[in-house]
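Notebook, p. 212. Picked up where the previous page left off. The plan for this session was modest: take the two constructs that came back from the sequencing core last week, fold each one, and keep the raw output in the notebook itself so nobody has to go hunting through shared drives later. Recording the first one now, exactly as returned: residue sequence, then the structure token string.
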Amino acid sequence: MTSAILSALNILTRPACGPDAQSSQQQVLLAALEANRTLLLQRLQTESSLEEVRRLREEVKVEAGWFCSDTEDVTWSFVQECLLLLLALTRHLSEELERFQQTPPPPAARHRTPELAPPLPPDILSVAQQKTLGAALQFVVSLGLCPYLSPGVGIPLGRRFTFGALVEKLVHGGAEPAGGRRLLTTTNVLLQLTELSSLATLVFTRHLGDVMAALCQLGYQPHREDKSIKPLTVEECRSCKEALRKLLAKVYQPIVVKELLILQGGPKQVENTARAGLGSAPAWLRRLCGQLLSERLMQPNGVQAVVRAVLEGGTGGDSDWRKCDAVARILVACPQQSTSADAYFRNICPQILELMHFKDKLTAQQFQRVATRAALSIVQERSSFGQQFLLRPLLAALQRCTTPSSQYVFPIWVVGNSPSVSLLEALEEVLPVVFTLFCFTKKNVSHLRAPCQEILVWYLSHAESSAGLSMIRQLSGLEEQKNEVAAGFLFTPGSDGGARLVCRGSSSDEDDELYEKLSGEQWRLECLMQILSELKDSDLPGDFFLELLQELTSWAAAADDEEKMDEEQPDVSAMTLLEVEQHLLGGAERRAQKVVLLQVLAVMVESLQHTELLRRTSQVVDFMVTLLQRACVGLDQASPPRVGNPVESQTLSMGMGLVATMLSGPQVSADDYSSMSKLLPPLQALSQQHPDVFIQELASNLRAVIATHGAFRPENLNTTAGSSSRNPESTANDISGAKTPVNKLPASSAGSTRKPTSDPPSKPFCDWLLEACDPDVPTRAFALRVLNQKVHHRDPEAVQNQEKVLTLFLENLEHEDSFIYLSAIQGLAALADSYPDRILERLLKDFQLGPSLSSSDRQRCLETRLKLGEVLMRASRAMGDLAPHLGRPLLGVFLQGTRDPDQTVRASSLSNLGELCQRMDYSLGPLAQELSSCLTALIKTEKEAEVRRAAVHVIAQLLRGLSDKTTQVLSEVLLDLYRALKLVLRSDPDEVAVLHAQLALEELDDVMRRFIFPEQKLEKKIVVLP
């Protein structure tokens, strides 16, 4: 029956025969419609296969009060036949589906296996049947619905396809007296079709916008005062409104929003302008669509529906950015239908935050754009609502540490990058928690590290200087922290690289608790320094540094008073217990605050470069003001301990030399002199009260230059600046006779200088040999370094005395001070690199048999052999391409060393063996069997875990060094090495050895993958034929 009805529809909608050449397109179309309708009626009467269709059609026709058999309109007659057949199909499918649902399944179906497909319901149509039904629906909509829509309602047919323009000329529905009735008839029939799910899919996927436009016009269009047109009754209008409401509630909301936006039309067009993509809709329709869109927006998940309607199908390009901004503007505007702005934003803001929780990458990116722009717009335009419904809920979870909200804070604050007072104040409350989370992520691998760092850097870059300094003081521990993670809790690794908050376990050992606390504070300071180092274009680190120096100076000025207070014994008998406790705690708190200040200063000077601390001239001047003020403390009392401190005197002289260097610059502006005027009071105090004559004269000269803005400049100012940084004591004696030009001081936050890395001072070679035997450790170490440089540069005297230098290095190799024996190790490595033939033979002999010098200490023989092993390892690294030629003797000694009685020598030999093997390349081929036997035997039989680790590590280094050559060099032993590694992985109790085995197997896996699946290269070969 279904096939028969669809066959009748096919007769009605099939293309006509070839058109007459003398007929117009309209005449051809009308003739085709009339011919198909006549053919259908004829075949319904004559063919027995369509008898059931004719019967069902007559039943529907009797019930249809809208059918008119005597109409002269060909198109409407054709549409009526289509409607009758569609209703007949709907009735038949409904009856068949009801019968299918009521019929119990057959016994065979009750025992159906899970793999067996269930029986298909009768309303399922084939692809060909859906194509026929779709054609019929298109005829109905094009001839029976769209022509009767008012101008501006829906998209005109002429803008959809070429056939639509022909239909517009053929059917003038707006001028028909019965146009409204025909539109109502077609719409009601289409709505009846949608009651069946299989037919509703075809209607809504292709003609939803047309049905919505028809319902809007039938239910809400104002009636025109035209007596020739009979308006719809109130009941009919009410039913259309109800049908529209049910339709909008039933369909997928993003599609509804999209269709409503299309119905609302584009902006009003000026006459005689180019045709826009969307025409201008009537005012009543624009108001209606705006109201319906507002209702969609304010319902649950309405924000998501609007966003999906606008953004679905986007690719993330520039057009999507504009769409995101447009959606954000829509969300910020409170609709007139809302009862109040408070109720609207209370409903919308949580939905905006939900847009940031999507997992799909492209969807999440687009939704976060909308959420970011909307949130920033609400905070800027509706600050009170933004604070109450957006920022507080978003940051509350971070304050409670219940969810990883930092990844949601990041797009709004950092990506949005629209700093405002409300955003900065809201972020300030949770910044300590973000910083604690950042410190935790620095110790682990976490995707939260980068967002936390960006949030901290963004706040410190955009906050006011006072707020930024206050926050840094809190994070560094100089001030009491607010809104910190609750005591007794700490972050631990969470799922997917996140973090979770857990209760801190109690420790019974007080020393462990103290160590954990101190190490945690040190780690927080190091993390804070990393944040400050990211502030490339900010003066905040320098301002914080200067503030700490000023605080240190003020404490130095009050040090004497505090010492007197500490020395005075209070009258405890006249104090209560609370006062005594407060007195004692006050002193302890002051001392603890000083310790924290010094710790922060030390970490800053150690971690940050001078270019990050003192970026501007004014900051350098403020630094010098602090330095000079600290030097002036106690001058009036002439305290001998303070004045006589050589470190403070040298620091002061270097600082004044820095000022002199600044004044000697080629371009010193008036603003620079104005900023340096702050140096005048401390310079005057130093020139009058400092006990050092050199400091007094230099301070007086500097004060004169600054006060006169460079008009007065002493001749010896540049000389003084250069010499003061080198040796203030000697310079004070011959300040007037110095002629050396000024050298620019290496800028340093601590005022320290570095020795230039130039050639060693010119001394006779024999003097360096004598100093290398000096009992003074620094002198000997420096002489050894100089000899090392001379050997490295092939100094002629070093070449002539290489035997003496070798003996000297071997003797110092046994020294117990690390400065000495490390310098000797470097020197021996340089000798082996420069003269490998003779030096390596001597070193190998001593490593194998022990020190050969007569003065050697036999009790320290093992330690000396291990140091020689370090020398040989460095020599192996320096061989480079000469390793296959020079490495054969070393290889034999190292293999013998693997059988040494001492485990440390065995481990050292294996370590050197690994360094050498990865540079031997193809020359390892003849020794591969011996090397494999040695390593596999050690792995299987060695009892010491340290030696097994070294053996496995040799295999890893061997594979890493040979790389793609592995299959050629180790082809005979590769299987044995693989089995040895698998044995370690399965049964070795040492975790480090297992880790080395895993790394070696990964190297072997990479090698074999490249061997089996070589990289495909596109190459062109040019062959020259003979």
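Okay, moving on. Second construct, recorded in the same format:
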Amino acid sequence: MAKILSGKRLILSLFFLVLKLSTAIEIPLSVQQVPTIIKQSKVQVAFPFDEYFQIECEAKGNPEPVFSWTKDDKPFDLSDARIIASNNSGTFKIPNEGHISHFQGKYRCYASNKLGVAMSEEIEFIVPSVPKFPKEKIEPLDVEEGDPIVLPCNPPKGLPPLHIYWMNIELEHIEQDERVYMSQKGDLYFANVEEKDSRNDYCCFAAFPRLRTIVQKMPMKLTVNSSNSIKQRKPRLLLPPPESGSESSVTILKGDTLLLECFAEGLPTPQVEWKKMGGDLPKGRETKENYGKTLKIENISYRDKGNYRCTANNFLGTANHDFHVIVEEPPRWRKKPESGVYSTGSSGILLCEAEGEPQPTIKWRVNGFPIGNHLFAGDVVFPREVSFTNLHPNHTAVYQCEASNIHGTVLANANIDVVDVIPLIQTKDEENYATVIGYSAFLHCEYFASPEAIVTWQRMDEAQALEGRRYRIHENGTLQILGTTEEDAGSYSCWVENAIGKTAVTANLDIRNATKLRVSPKNPRVPKSHILELHCESKCDSHLKHSLKLSWSKDGEDFEINGTEDGRIVIDRANLTISNVTLEDQGVFSCLAQTALDSIAEATQVTVLDVPDPPRNLQLSERQNRSVRLSWEAGADHNSNISEYIVEFEGNREEPGRWEELTRVQGKETTALLQLAPYVRYQFRVTAVNEVGKSHPSQPSDYHETPPAAPEKNPQNIRVQASQPKEMIIKWEPLKSMEQNGPGLEYRVTWKPQGAPVEWEEETVTNHTLRVMTPTVYAPYDVQVQAINQLGSGPEPQSVVLYSGEDYPDTAPVVHSVDVINSTLVKVTWSTIPKDRVHGHLKGYQINWWKTKSLLDGRTHPKEVNILRFSGQRNYGMVPSLDAFSEFRLTVLAYNSKGVGPESEPYIFQTPEGVPEQPTFLKVIKVDKDTATLSWEQPMKLNGNLTGYLLQYQIINDTDEIGELNEINITTPSKSSWHLSNLNATTKYKFYLRACTSKGCGKPVTEESATSGEGSKGIRKISEGVNLTQKIHPVEVFEPGAEHIVRLMTKNWGDNDSIFQDVIETRGREYGGLYDDISTQGWFIGLMCAIALLTLILLTVCFVKRNKGGKYSVKEKEDLHPDPEVQSAKDETFGEYSDSDEKPLKGSLRSLNRVMQPTESADSLVQYGEGDHRLFNEDGSFIGAYAGSKEKGSVESNGSSTATFPLRA
């Protein structure tokens, strides 16, 4: 449910409101009052790189305060020409010009008017000097090896902090360790010197970071003389110095960091230890630094005072020093005097108490002067308080309390203002307020009054004051209405009255509807790595929509406005999207809706699901020969209950390292009794599963090994592989490693003829195959295979029936009839062969057919055998996709798994005429305003005697309406063009041309063209000419036996006139088997003559063009590499003429014929194919399986299938 919360902005406003109600109202500046200092500087440092130094002092009061200064308790003249004073304040600047050291001192600011004087705390102005090491001559130091030595630094004084470093001339730090130590003052101590300490460039560097200054002391030379008799000695303290004795005192201010140091010389190098006498060192705040020589305690408190002892020791003795730590503190206020406003005749008291160590002394002042000399009548002064009675306006003053000890001074000003004034309401009249239903309304009436005043509120339409538990008037005059309703809207008046008089203001209150919020989905469960989408739907009052703001948070932490930088979390106002959710995204997501008046938040618990953690601590117990108990501990389920455990094992001798599933256990169980196989060295692991997925596998368990045993199962899937006649190759699935149960696995194979009363033949093998020779072809045998190993045999095997090898069928079917269904489909009927002549399992019958000649022109065709197979025992089949008006021969043969048998005698049949295919092309070669000339080419397949053409045309302008269809019957089959007249000018037509036989007309070929306007010619441009310099490419043979027309066209504007035209009948590529010598065939000689004639003509044209101004080579180059701009202009000016949808390559010779789709009367061979093709006949039953192939020596055609089985004679 929605939980209404105060938004952050509303919470802050309420906090400051309550704070305001609990403190005194400031005196308006319109009322006379003593000065109050509102801003002053603290310690000011004159850094040399600053342009000027500003010392601030600002105050308020009525009348306007006047400022004056003292320096070191002496008057300081602001009219000094060397400083710049500010107008209307006490602030002044000291320019950084020349010597300013004489300005160093302690300043105090005084702000005064006729009613009193306020004074500031002391402001110290520090002018630091530039630190320098003195110029001195440092004598070299010469010591014996093992002696102690101290290299003094004596850094110059400067502005803290000070950092000291010991380095050589190359600015490399001098290494410090247990033997070498730098003290807090900067001196370098050696507990005992070694020869490696000799060097002439020991340099002390003093750094003053606030001054951006580093100074260097002159280098020191240290020479260590080697000694053959180095004496060992007990420790002797060098720090603290010996003259301080065995005890010393250290004073530290509360809150600072205490540093105590001890360093002892001796050989071996002494070790330093620290302890607090009578107590323990403060844990968490103490550290030992510099190899134990420095004790550091941070944030010192009074409980840290006492005695601390350092002890330096080696095996020869010890040395001690005690530090008496004294903790002191600068003054701080315990009770600070407070300013007050009083009326005539009233009384008051000022309290001033401070703490510190030593105890601070208290001094009172009035208007900056000691109180003893400026007492008012009725004042009573005590060390920590001042009281006064029967106050009068002339008693108005500023009292100062100053607490000080040796560590500092604190100063407080307390204003005593005696005022009598009619109430002054500071809130504007007719102020408008608004709140939402159920919230509190706050109507302000801030005022100043002296003497004290009474505040009352009432509604404008009611005479009596507001009373009741819902109304609360605060000390500052604010009216709070609790739990507002719509009836609380209206106008209210605030009256403030004291002994001097009364005043009033009016306030108006509007009530708005509360904001509503809903987050969806509620408490979603999201798998890890998925996407989380949350939507925040809000509704607020129409007056508050402009201020509505939505924000998202998770577990109380706000998201950035746009989400995260990596883009994984995206916030788009009301939508929060988290991509690739992680487990860390789980938590409470809250949407906060804030308006100017209210706020509401709703939360949803997001649960992130993940695969479980792997199970752990796998244990094996109850170990038996064929079982073992596995136990484990469940891992974290990541908010999704574990549904099951998968127990896997590894122990396969053939595939070591391969894990296999053994069993599954319900998710509430963490133990399983595992059934095992013999002769396996097991290792187990467990995977947990929940609704998200599988965990990673657990760590493997210990090993458990089972003893061997005899096989418990025999091989499966006993079968015979395709083999030679009178042969059986017996195969079976070998036992897996887990099934062998022991070493020495073998297989005992037994067989005998099925049902024969003879003994079983037997053979034992180690592999999983056996070759057996039999006396007969395709005879049934009972076969058994039994597994055996060194421990015994498997169970009694079951017999399976297998057949010996097959042979080819040895007789052919007899074709009874061929019934013609249509021009492309026939039904073949044959007689089946006897079962004993199959010599195997009969798989079906195969029809071979080939076209012998065309009945249209009587031309014979080379033998190209097609194959169609029919599965099963049947005596008929349908042969599709035949050529119409042709003569065919077919044979039928039987086939089994071995192959096909002999063919039947060829059966001759003929197909009737059919409708022709569509014409090869249709082109409009010339148009005028009312005429058009059409040209076409006859179909590639006529499918009968051509009787003529049917020409149709109609208007198809760019509208949805089409014109009437006109028909022209062309009864001259040899006609290849037609001239149409009486057409409409500037009109688009569509033309349809069909070829016809006595069986009807075929599919149309279409073309569109538009007639021209007055006086224009419509001669179309031929798209490409022949490049006369290009070599002639052989024409691609699309189909053996097809006719192709080859024309040589002029590349100019004109009709469909050709220089050369010939019809070429294509042949296949494999004639070697049909004809002894291809060069002696007539078609080949004719083709060669045509090509020679064409070549001669091309050479002649080339010669003529080259003699026409010598421009032929340029034209050729343009054709090969056309200029894009010129080509574009040509394309836009003239329409392209092409007899094909695809443009030919430049310079190539291309047939004008197109490969057209088969006519509707042709049956597709795919419809009768085997395998992936559809199989059907007229009544929906299976027809047969087709596979196109050719006998050896047949002509290969484009797209034909290869033979699937060899043909047998």
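Notes on construct two before I forget. The helical segments are 8-22, 1082-1106, 1112-1120, 1124-1133.
Flagging for discussion at group meeting.
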